[in-house]
């Protein structure tokens, strides 16, 4: 299941608000149309030597990335950093990226979790506002 399908299934109206799109219909069967055309690079997550998130370096990276006409960014995507972070750090990282990215840029978060079942904290984190 893709991230967009997961968002549609889990919280369709919230997904529409977060992704800046308009719901096609309402209720349980709601779906969303999001323009995914353009370049959405998987961004690397910077870490300090003590393995804590290097949000200061992330800000420096965004100063350069925001000069490039990307459609948006993929956080915790194919680079594979997600096993190195707690659920709280993952949500905090997505929040920070949303703050650093221009309002017209999409921010897609990789839904990966280690193991066969996600952490009991992970589903609740995805229902919290990003700002």
Structure description:
The chain is mainly alpha-helical. It folds into two domains: 1-34, no CATH class; 36-111. Helices cover 34% and strands 8% of the residues. The protein has five helices and three strands, in the order H-H-E-H-E-H-E-H. It has helices at residues 3-10, 12-19, 55-65, 87-100, 122-125, and strands at 42-43, 72-75, 106-109. A three-stranded parallel sheet has the order 1-2-3, with helices on one face. Helix 4 (87-100) links the parallel strand 2 and strand 3. The longest helix has 14 residues, at 87-100. The protein is globular and about 40 Å long. It starts with a helix and ends in a 6-residue tail after the last helix.
Please give the structural blueprint.
Elements: H1 3-10, H2 12-19, E1 42-43, H3 55-65, E2 72-75, H4 87-100, E3 106-109, H5 122-125
Parallel strand pairs: 1-2, 2-3
Number of domains: 2
What assembly state would you assign to the polypeptide chains in this entry?
A: single chain
- Rg measurement, Å: 15 Å
- Tell me the distance between the termini: 26 Å
Provide the residue-averaged pLDDT.
75
Q: Please identify the structural class as seen in this structure.
A: mainly alpha
Region (Disordered): 111-131
Keywords: Lyase
Subunit structure: Homotetramer.
InterPro entries: Aldolase_TIM (IPR013785), DapA-like (IPR002220)
Question: Outline of this structure?
Answer:
Helices cover 34% and strands 8% of the residues.
Question: Characteristics of this structure?
Answer:
mainly alpha, 2 domains, disordered N terminus, 131 residues, 34% helix
